[in-house]
Structure formats: structure tokens, C-alpha cells
UniProtKB/TrEMBL annotation:
GO terms for biological process: translation. Keywords: Ribonucleoprotein, Ribosomal protein, RNA-binding, rRNA-binding, tRNA-binding. The lineage of its organism: Bacteria, Candidatus Buchananiibacteriota. Binds 23S rRNA and is also seen to make contacts with the A and possibly P site tRNAs. PROSITE patterns: RIBOSOMAL_L16_1. The gene is rplP. One of its GO terms (molecular function) is rRNA binding. Belongs to the universal ribosomal protein uL16 family. GO terms for cellular component: ribonucleoprotein complex; ribosome. This is Large ribosomal subunit protein uL16.
Length: 136
């Protein structure tokens, strides 16, 4: 199951801007523990799914998970044998634009030690640096 939007406003948009800090989606809203990005970048749908599988496997049906990012942005790719010119390539995969401070995952219903361990394992699957957050 790969994450992808059902409908797009633009099929081939320009490259997204990753500069600046997250103005929204930057605090724990649902769970008790969270994984927050400290650097910016693109997180692909495959990386989000791999991270989700790691958390699910670690929790063993205990606790609840919230995925706070979604890959809305298509990234185009040209074929390997394509010559220069010929226009922009076809959409290849989808990414979520993650800015520093963005909350990526949230967990509830498990102990802090287990949540910390699950988020540590999850962070290995992500291309951005992260930190573990506990709700006050």
C-alpha cells in the first residue's frame, strides 16, 4: 500500500521549497509521544510506509499511531534512455515536503521507553534528522 493523492491540482508542479521552519503541524496534537523533524527534506511515500511498518511491528497491536505527513507532491522522472530536451518527465513518485519542526509521527497507549525505542527504529528509515518529543 503506497500513499498517493487521489486527485492533483497540478500534475507536474515546480520543485517545492524546503527552506524555513514549519509554521503548522509542529506540535503534538493527537498522541502522547511524537517524532519531530529537526532538518528539512523530502520524505517519499515508500519511506513513510517503511517507517509505519517498523512502528506497527514494534507495537504488536498495542497503542495507536498517527501519521502527520502525507506525500502530496509528485516528483517527475525521465526515462533512462531519454535524450536532452523533450520536455519534463512523467510523475514517478510522491513526496511529503518536511520542514524543520514538522511532526511526522505520533504514538499513544504505550510506555515512554517503548515509544522512544519505536521512534528510534523509525528514524533510521527517514532521510531527515529527527527528535523524540513527549507531550507536557
Amino acid at each position: 500500500m503506497t500513499l498517493a493523492p487521489k486527485k492533483l491540482k497540478m500534475r507536474k508542479p515546480h520543485r517545492p521549497d524546503v527552506r524555513g521552519v514549519a509554521g503548522r503541524n509542529n506540535a503534538i496534537a493527537f498522541g502522547k509521544f511524537g517524532l519531530k523533524a529537526t532538518t528539512g527534506g523530502w520524505v517519499s511515500a515508500a519511506q513513510i510506509e517503511a517507517s509505519r511498518r517498523v512502528i506497527t511491528k514494534f507495537l504488536k497491536r498495542g497503542g495507536k499511531i498517527w501519521i502527520r505527513i502525507f506525500p502530496h507532491r509528485p516528483i517527475t522522472e525521465k526515462g533512462t534512455q531519454a535524450t536532452m530536451g523533450g520536455g519534463k518527465g512523467a510523475p514517478g513518485y510522491y513526496v511529503a515536503v518536511v520542514k524543520p519542526g514538522t511532526m511526522i509521527f505520533e504514538i499513544e497507549g504505550i510506555s515512554e521507553a517503548d515509544a522512544r525505542q519505536a521512534m528510534k527504529l523509525t528514524s533510521y528509515k527517514l532521510p531527515v534528522k529527527t527528535t523524540f518529543i513527549v507531550k507536557d
